[in-house]
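Spend some time on this chain, tokens included, and walk me through the fold:

. . .
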Amino acid sequence: MPRAPIDHSAPPEDDVAGESRAVHPDGEAPAPVADADATVSLARHAARQGTRSLSLHQRLTRSLEELTPNEQRIARFLLAHQDELALYNAAELSRLTDVSKATVSRLFRRLGYQDFREARDQARSLRQSGVPVAAAPTADHHQRHYEQECRNLRQALAALDMLDMEALSSALAKAERLQIIGFRNAYPLALHLRQQLLQLREQVAVLPQPGQSLGEEVARLGADDAVVVFAMRRRPQGLARLLEWLGQAPCTVLLVCDDSLSTIPAGIEHVLRCPLDSVSAFDSYAAAMSQINLLATQLLHDDLVGGRSQIRRVTDTFDALEELGDG
């Protein structure tokens, strides 16, 4: 006698009465067959639609209305606490939302993940790409922050030691014009380097100027020019093309970047790596500022007579304009 077809129009027990209370000896509720079939189907459909390229937030908001009530409970909790996902495991998420661990697992499969761990790893990778991810502060947070800053400084100084500082400082000192480029979070670094170097030499500029483009500025770069580019993570899309172009240009180029920039275009001879790692939500630029300090100091000592002359000229101008006070 043929088997009667499964009626998929009826909602799973989970949708009608909340969590199923039948449990296996291991303490986990079994998923109904129809629900398991639906989970596999949704996961396959999600994969076909390229869901794996989407963030957890995008997956949750797109699928929210299709989820069961208990899955929606988890989803709404995650939408309200996305930054904390990297801190949880599946059991903790089950406890915090008062649903079974089996439902937690089914939800993440519905969203196109292999399991909860894959979603958590994706959340953790966001921090490594520069996305601010808030975590609950711990009692030893300040100590851990201090220790991480020390590690960053040690790495930054080691990176400076690997540079051919004699060749780099000579090229920067001889450059007729020194152009400094920095976008987004790197822009304050570019401004700070310019501020230090203006006390030592003339013809130092930050590019691009507000509201302007780069093309007309870099088009006239020649062999007597030097460019310092700060390329920290979460870089604008066009920066890779700019670096390729600068690699073919006749000017000297110093690239300051973090480890997330894996491909360095040919022709860029000076590369300075700078760690940004932090135990906090935001990247730390303390090591980058320290590198700028040492780089400017190196340039001053390479031309001490000229540098001192420029410092006196700037200081006398401050006095004449009465720009700086004693407070």
